[in-house]
Amino acid sequence: MEVFTIKNLTFKYPKSGNCALDSVNLTIKKGEFLLICGKSGCGKTTLIRHLKTVLSPAGEKDGEIYYEGTLINEVPDRVQAQKIGYVMQNPESQIVTDKVWHELAFGLENLGFKNSAIKIRVAEMASYFGIQNWFHRETKELSGGQKQILNLACIMALNPDVIILDEPVSQLSDIAAREFLMLLGKIHEEFGVTVIIVEHRLENVFPMCDRIVVMDKGKIVSLGDKQQTIENIKDNDFFDAMPVPVKICAKLGAKPYNVPVNVNEGRRFIEKYVSEKQCVKKDDGVHCGKTVRENIIAIKDVWFRYGKNGDDVLKGLDFTIEKGKLTCILGGNGAGKTTLLYILCGILAPYRGKIIIKGKNIKKWSADGLYGKLIGMLPQNPAALFVKDNVYEDMAECIADKNCVEKKIEYISGLLDINDILDKHPYDLSGGEQQRCALAKVLLTEPEILILDEPTKGFDGFHKRKLAEILKKLLDDGVTILMVSHDIEFCAEYADICALCFDGGITASGNAKQFFAGNSFYTTSANRMVREYFPAAVTPGEVVSLCSIT
């Protein structure tokens, strides 16, 4: 039975010359796990928002959508609210109450459930999702992973038939993302709920799916199971977004329709490949030549807490940022990474410790001296930077020399692949498009120190590679880049230095290759696949190269 049937769906946003969706035809079967993926801006989010009428975007629409045989517009709001759950990208955007227990009860209360039924359902959800230990906490105190689990639990409390998720793990650490997806998989298997998920981080979700939809420029370009998808897009730019085992094994000649899709399958493939090809095992570490270090930022014994009586978020943190290097700070949700960035920008102030920037205490920098040409920051929420009615005007306000506005915007929009959305309102863009436009605004200020909070969030593999090229050019021009990220694979591939933030401090740091090769658990998929043969390999390129040595 089909839960959704989409027929010739075409959609165009207001004042837009291009179709966000172009003659989309799709049937979604009851009880299946469907992944929708594709390049940033290809129409994924626009498509799934049409599956729930209260979330449908404004614009010109043509075509039909049926829910269990009924036109979606004729399905009562109460039925949609109860039977079609929706998890948004930002964990905080769905939370509306102050306490966890109240949040669990909120949807049931709004649908008019009796108090006795609400109590039973809330208790069930808290037990099933492991929420008992933080049941009475305030929602603002939760980590990103806990907030997203709470959002999922609130939806499941309504006993839905369908759960639609829009990049639900994009802002979560790798460990929190795995935990969330494991719960989602458990729900799918045990209750038969139909799962429709849009995601860029395919490493963990790709092996779980029954079918995969790949979109490009508003159209479906591939529809099939995992192996069909790999074969269909092997010559497409989007292949860069495939899980690491897929990319490695495909390059090493895995047979069509039999490509490993997870680390365990990849490990078995490598074991057989190394044996058959008699590859030379290498167990030497990563050796780095000595360089003259020049620090541009020094963080000395920094302590910080939110509120006078709050717990310490940063606890005696000491760290230095090298000039002209890309430094990546990793760690779980709630470890203090974003707080540190706000302190470095002067937005927050520690109650103890010092921040030294270019040999000068941050307190002695004027606001005009600190911002703009010295420090530019891309926040975790890119929408915070948008203040105008279209992207072009938003970018123009960042350019001091008004005689160069058109020239600079043309250059930066070409660099970030946003030429065709300059006339759009920033809030009509996809998450990845917003991210690129916000980054464009920051880059137009031409800062000496660039601070990025989760810059790859919402980026597909193609645009991650484009971002890496931009960062490389900035580094060559002498810009220092500090980046907070959950994207382990990106950091391993492109960072100079990586550091792990844990419990309010930096517990480990060093050269990126050494950092990941030295970790047993907090490391890349590539390293987990081949560490028995090539312990120092942490990227797909290194694995493929080493497997070629016979």
Summary of the model, kept short:
The chain is α/β, with parallel strands linked by helices.
Can you describe what's shown?
- Helix 9 runs parallel beside helix 20 (540-547).
- The chain has helices spanning 44-49, 77-83, 100-110, 115-128, 144-156, 174-191, 202-205, 226-232, 244-251, 263-277, 337-344, 367-370, 391-396, 405-415, 431-444, 461-476, 488-494, 512-517, 525-530, 540-547; strands at residues 2-12, 21-29, 33-38, 60-67, 70-71, 84-87, 162-166, 194-198, 211-216, 219-224, 295-305, 312-322, 326-330, 352-357, 360-361, 375-378, 449-453, 480-484, 497-502, 505-511.
- The protein has 550 residues and is α/β, with parallel strands linked by helices.
- The longest helix has 18 residues, at 174-191.
- Residues 285-290 have low confidence and may be disordered.
* Shape, principal axes of CA atoms: globular
> Could you name the ranges where pLDDT drops below 50 across 5 or more consecutive residues?
285-290
Per DSSP E runs of 2 or more residues, the count of β-strands stands at: 20
The whole-number mean of residue pLDDT values reads 90
Give the radius of gyration: 24 Å
- Tally of helical segments: 20
For the largest beta-sheet, the strand count, sense and barrel status come to: 6 strands, mixed
**Termini separation (Å)?**
52 Å
- Based on helices, strands and strand pairing, what is the structural class? alpha/beta
Q: Roughly what percent helix? A: 25-40%
- Percentage of residues in strands: 15-25%
Strand order in space, largest sheet? 6-7-8-3-9-10
